[in-house]
Every structure is written in C-alpha cells, then in structure tokens.
From TrEMBL:
It holds the Pfam family RNase_H2-Ydr279. GO terms for cellular component: nucleoplasm; ribonuclease H2 complex. It comes from Coprinopsis cinerea (strain Okayama-7 / 130 / ATCC MYA-4618 / FGSC 9003). Residues 253-293 are annotated as: Disordered. GO terms for biological process: RNA catabolic process. This is Ribonuclease H2 subunit B. It is found in: Nucleus. Residues 88-233 form the Ribonuclease H2 subunit B wHTH domain. The keyword Magnesium does not apply. Keywords: Nucleus. The keyword Ribosomal protein does not apply.
Amino acid sequence: MTMTARFAILPEDIIQTLSVQLEQPNEVVQFLSLPHPRTGLLSLFLPTPDAILEVQAVSPPEGRSWFLGEHVYEDGRLVMMTPIDPAFLLLPLLKAGQSDVFRTGEDLFEEITRKIVEESEGNNKTLLERSIATLAGLPCAQKALRLICDVKEFGPGTVVYRHSPEKAEQYLRSKIGRLENSKTLEVSRTIVRHLAKEGLMEDGREKLLAVGRTKAAFDLVAQYLSPEMKQTLLATYDFAELEAHLRQNMADEVPLKSATNTKKGAAGKAEGDGKKRKAAKGSHGVEQLKKVNTTGMAKLSSFFNKAEKAKS
C-alpha cells in the first residue's frame, strides 16, 4: 500500500511538546514562513512555546521511497527540524523596521510587517503577515527581543523597545565566545579535521589554535547572518595572524606539490625508457609468407634490371 507521509528528525523534547499539542481538540501544527536570516528567502520554521525549529528537507539525487512494515511512502525526502536562535530571525526584521524611537512590541512589529510585506513579491503576503504576528507572540521571541534591543519599562505591562546594533553585536560575540569554549567544536569531526589540516593542532601553536577555534565558531554563527551583518561582525575580530599562517601554509604546499609531480613524471619517464619496445606483430598473410621456401627462386629485383643490349 502506497501512502503519503513525511519522515522527519527533530529533538525528542520537541516531539513530546508537539504530541501534547496535537492531543488538544481542533489543534493543528502551523508552520511559519519567514525570511531566512542569511539569504532573505522565505523559509519554513516550526514554532513551539519554548523554541523555533528550522525546517529543511534532504532530497536524494534520484527517486527514493520509504518502506515501513507493509507500507510504502513515495516521498523519499528526509525532513530535518533543528533549533534556531530566535534572535537570528529577529535581526533582519528589526533592521527592516529600524527606528530611532522606542515603541511598544505591537507597534514595532506592525511597522516591521508593513515594510517587509511591501518589499515582498508573490502571493505570500497574507502568510507572511500571519507568520510575523505569530513570531511576535512567542515567549522565546520576546525573550530574544530583550537581548538585542534597548528596553524601557513604564510601569507594569508597559514595555518599549528600540533596536540596538551595538547590543546585537555584543550578543553575537558572546554567542561565538560560548560556542568556541564548548564541546561542540571538539565533537565535530569536520571542524577537528579542518583545524588539523591547517596545522593548528601541532605543538607550540596553542595560541593560533585558540584563534582558529574562534574563527570556526564565527563561521558557524555566520551561517545565520546576512552578508552585510557578517562583514560588520567580522571587523570586530583580529584574524590577521591566523590568515598570515594560512597563507604561509599555502605557499609551502605549492613547491611541495610541484616537486612531487616532477618526481612522479621523471620516474614514469625512466620506467618508459627502460622498457624495450616490442616489435609489432605482422598480419596473418605476412607471417605465412615468411614460412615459404624461396630456394632457387629469382629475386624480385631481377625483374626490374635493364635488358642487356644485343652484341653487334
């Protein structure tokens, strides 16, 4: 039996949260369609009270299906849902609605929605409006808003916000600092191989290794930053010594590769010269003629000599 379904990977605690949510009467899971913080393209996100998940689909190069028991599921894609910091989603929205005045959260997101929708193309404006409104009401988003905005409170229940690039920069730098000192980098084989390939894990290069870890953490965070914001944040770091080391590594590798290729070429030529070329075998007819007994037969050249003149 062929069925329509999706296979997904997501955190276990989120599965429990969604299970409880779906048990409620008339409750459905609604996805958000929001600009991706790096590309600006509309992407899918799954909101929960405590977290937001980025939804991505891994598609096989050729048609695939899932088999589960006696059922066949035609869609062979694997959906992955991974937590994303709400601050990453808020940063480009706040920049779009940039203002020098403090505003309530409601007014702030109304202005953001108006500008984002005006710049959007296609027929997704209603979905975009609803997604931004849902994001604004999430507790995790409201908490993140305080981390990247100047905040003032006027009595109970009255809070105003103003986007602060300086505060956002401090937050991103602190995030990079926590990441570089966490075990995340150590358990990532890709990052460890990359650091080793750059020669940063050798004895005596502990200082360079520390800078390399910072750069690796920066690159991870930069996956969720716009190109402009990435360059602004990059300017707050000093990777000059690391970059000089990497350039020297590349310069040292060029003559080494050249020498290796030259050595291989010379060895191949010597091997070729040392082997005698084997004579090519003649055709079947030629080989048969070699076996003919030519004793007593006139040479072929005798038929082409000039005839002797008759004696007078």
